[in-house]
Every structure is written in structure tokens, then in C-alpha cells.
Specification:
203 residues, Rossmann fold, alpha/beta, 52% helix, 7 helices, five-stranded parallel β-sheet, globular, single chain
Length: 203
């Protein structure tokens, strides 16, 4: 087996500018994920909403764009597999292209909700900016169907998504990666609260 001739970089060899950047970056994440009773209450309310959804025979539907869509898919899998709460994510490329082609990108998720959601379901709407038209339209559709709604947003405090849900999470950050990481962290905490453990086997 070939051995690399390169020597490992000593752990203490960090460019000072990089260290300063990363210290600031980690500080931003620490501040964004700082917890208080209000955050605890929202996570607890999310757990209660999901369990109520399961008791009614409903499903938790996660929606998002881009990075938030990736988070939505991850959360749907973990909630269903690890917490035994039925969940799904509108991430099928054929569905997306069909509905966007027929109704436009701003309305495709609303039509996915119209076609696939049913009484007793819960919609979890994720948008870092809180301004994505297709997410806002999907929430409006969910409201007409009387679904429970949980929102996750960030950036500006006055973004339109922030107050549209029964439970609303907002991250006080202007960094997309910090907002997305915090959204995923909070929702993973809610999933583990359903399970009742922070550590468990993968299967």
C-alpha cells in the first residue's frame, strides 16, 4: 500500500486570519443556537404537534428550497424512521417539474399540498429568508385546508413567514449557513424529544 510522503499539518498551525474568521463564525452559531425558555417552549410545542398529527392518522409534510429542501428531506426521513411519526417531503423531481411547468414555480408547492395533503396533516415550512413565494403560497394553501403549520425562518425579523404558523421559529442571523444549521439543529432536537433520547442506534 502506497504511503503518502506528506507530513500531517500540526494542529496548532492555523493561519491567524483563518482562526479569527472561524472564531467569529463559531461565535455566530453559538449565539444563534443559544437557548432560553421561549425556544424550549417552541421545541416542546413542535413535539406535541407532531404527536397529535400521528394520533389523528396524519403525516408531517416538510417543504423548503435549496439547502432548506435538503434539510426538509433529512428531517422527514429521521422523523419517520427514528421517531415513528409518518412524514414526507415534496422532493420528487418529476412532481416538482410537472407542477412548476403547469402552475409556475411560485405555486408548485401549494398545488402539491392541495393534491397530497389531507385532514390531520401538519406542514413544516422552512425558508431561511422567510420570503420565498412558493413557501408562503404553500402555507396559505395549508391554512385553507386547516392543517397545523410550523414555520422556520431567519434573516429579517419582519419577514412574512415568521408569524404564519401555529409554532414559529426565527433565527436572528443574516448568514444563510448559520440559519440553516440552526433550523436543522432545533428540528433534530424536537425529533429526539419525541424519541426521548439523544443517543440511540441508527436502526
Amino acid at each position: 500500500m502506497l504511503q503518502s510522503s506528506r507530513q500531517p499539518m500540526p494542529a496548532e498551525s492555523v493561519d491567524p486570519d483563518h482562526k479569527a474568521f472561524l472564531a467569529d463564525y463559531m461565535g455566530r452559531l453559538h449565539r444563534a443556537t443559544a437557548v432560553d425558555d421561549a425556544v424550549f417552549a417552541r421545541i416542546s410545542a413542535t413535539r406535541a404537534t407532531w404527536l397529535h398529527t400521528r394520533e389523528q392518522g396524519g403525516r408531517v409534510i416538510f417543504i423548503g428550497n435549496g439547502g432548506s429542501a435538503g434539510i426538509a428531506s433529512h428531517l422527514a426521513i429521521d422523523l419517520a424512521k427514528n421517531a415513528s411519526v409518518p412524514a414526507l417531503c415534496f422532493s420528487d423531481a418529476s412532481m416538482m417539474s410537472c407542477l412548476a411547468n403547469d402552475y409556475g414555480f411560485e405555486d408548485w408547492i401549494a398545488h402539491a399540498v392541495r393534491l397530497s395533503a389531507r385532514a390531520g396533516d401538519c406542514l413544516v415550512a422552512i425558508s431561511s429568508s422567510g420570503r420565498s413565494k412558493n413557501i408562503l403560497n404553500a402555507v396559505a394553501q395549508a391554512r385553507t385546508m386547516k392543517l397545523d403549520v410550523i414555520t422556520l425562518s431567519g434573516m429579517n425579523a419582519d419577514n412574512p413567514l415568521r408569524n404564519l404558523g401555529d409554532v414559529n421559529f426565527w433565527v436572528d442571523s443574516r448568514s444563510y449557513n448559520i440559519v440553516e444549521t440552526t433550523h436543522q439543529f432545533w428540528m433534530m432536537a424536537a425529533i429526539d424529544l419525541v424519541i426521548g433520547r439523544a443517543e440511540y442506534p441508527a436502526s
